Amino acid sequence: MSIQNVLVVDDSKTELMFLSELLRKNGFSVCTAENADEAMQQLETAKPDLILMDVVMPGQNGFQLTRAITRNPQFVDVPIIMCTSKNQETDRVWGMRQGARDYVTKPVDAAELLAKIKALS
Questions:
Q1: 20 to 30 Å CA-CA from 62: which of 28, 53, 54, 98?
Q2: Residues 100 and 78 sit within 8 Å (Cβ to Cβ)
Q3: How confident is the model at residue 1 (pLDDT cuts 50, 70, 90)?
Q4: What is the pLDDT of residues 97-118, one digit of tens each?
């Protein structure tokens, strides 16, 4: 599977801008959402090839949203990389148990993130 379209879900405008610019500079098409509701609206509009998911957001958090997306037959094949400031091993394990394929902690190392995306392609 070739990853071209990425949905970035994060309530921080700074993180959205940083990740969007990084991805676009590397040839990806990017859509963004600032919370779970916006993410679900984006998913209804177009199915992405990859989702970068923050954990700490108002309303439904990234763990809950990841679980909901990965249990939906329509999106079960869309990989999710958790991209969060929650840097404890228990957080990483929990994120993976919710269905995430990988886990990156903030501040995001661009080379690390791009390598993880390439590994999923």
A1: 28
A2: no
A3: low
A4: 999 999 999 999 999 999 999 9
List Cα–Cα distances, 77 to 38, 41, 70, 86, in angstroms. 20, 18, 8, 25
- In whole angstroms, give the CA distance from residue 99 to residue 77: 11
Q: Which amino acid is at 34?
A: E
50 vs 88, 90, 119, CA distance in Å?
Answer: 24, 23, 12
Give the SS3 label for residue 62: helix
- As given in the structure block, the two tokens for residue 48 are 């992405």
> C-alpha angle with apex 84: 82 to 85, nearest 5 degrees?
155
- Reported as type and span, the H/E element at residue 52 is strand 50-53
